[in-house]
Amino acid sequence: MTSLNAHANELSSVDALAPIFKASGDPLRLEILRVLRRDTFGVLELSQLFGMRQSGMSHHLKVMHKAGLLEPQREGNAIFYRRPLHLDSEKLTDQTIRQVFETVDKVALPAHLQEKIEAIRTQRADQSQAFFARHAEQFREQQELIAAFDLYAGPVADLLRKRAAKQSWQTTLEIGPGEGAFLKVLSELSGHVVALDNSRDMLAKATRTCIDERLNNVDLIEGVTDTLLARGDAFDLVIANMVLHHVPSPADIFLDAAALMNSGGCFVISELCSHDQDWAKENCGDLWLGFEPEELTAWAAEAGLSAGEQLFIGLRNGFQVQVREFWKTTGRS
Prior knowledge:
The protein contains 14 helices and 10 strands. It has helices spanning 2-24, 27-35, 43-50, 54-67, 92-104, 111-134, 139-143, 149-164, 183-189, 200-213, 225-231, 250-260, 279-284, 293-302, and strands at 41-42, 71-75, 78-82, 169-175, 190-197, 218-222, 235-241, 261-272, 305-314, 320-328. The strands form 2 sheets. It has a 7-stranded mixed β-sheet, with helices on both faces. A 3-stranded antiparallel β-sheet has the order 1-3-2. Residues 9-104 form the HTH arsR-type domain.
């Protein structure tokens, strides 16, 4: 009887594996998996990337979703697709899916696909930048529709001060400082602070904050993380407060932060947890409706960063903020 049960379980496992191999046994679908390594794309965006009709792309995505290779992510009224966040290391099917991902990731993306991906990211970045250019004067008012600054800045400051008792940060980078409200905290904790923003209007406000607060060890730079990577800058601490939901490719922020950090460096973020309040896109310029904690952890791990302390803050309006820290324990990338 035991032998029969074992045989039945073996057949059941084989039956469960078949859809995975069938769904992944197509060059186009493997390319889709490849472009979704760190990015999340909608059906229309994937159709643009691969030059095919939406109906055809939807069919491929349906097959891959059914096999467990993809999962949908609702962003308001739109559906985006990503690789599954939760894969059980003990389940044979999930082990197989992970092996498919690891294998396909060894193949470099063709140049033409990479160019199309960059074009989509540029469209998203332009959309975000245009919003902040239009609403720079109402920045604080717009942001506090979701979360008042002190509700997340306070816990982040407390975490940094606790770490500063044992950790010395000579150089600090804040990505997306907004009006510069957090720069005073960083100026007190670090010898030299760089504030990086791609919005000239927001940098003008941050400059005024630095003048008013007499923050003489802060440099404000217009640009993106690539700007600092090209200069060869290196930091002990990198901060991103409520920034990820405004950037075209959030996963890349982790890669860039890791590349910009010295060994032993720390990346601290505050960010919205995943939510369904679509009005935030129109009213606050959000590109993404928050993120699952596992999503951030996975992006950090791929960037070579180890997760540290985490704190979750529930807000009265239904939003939840996560404060996370990630550490770089190896040499600079």
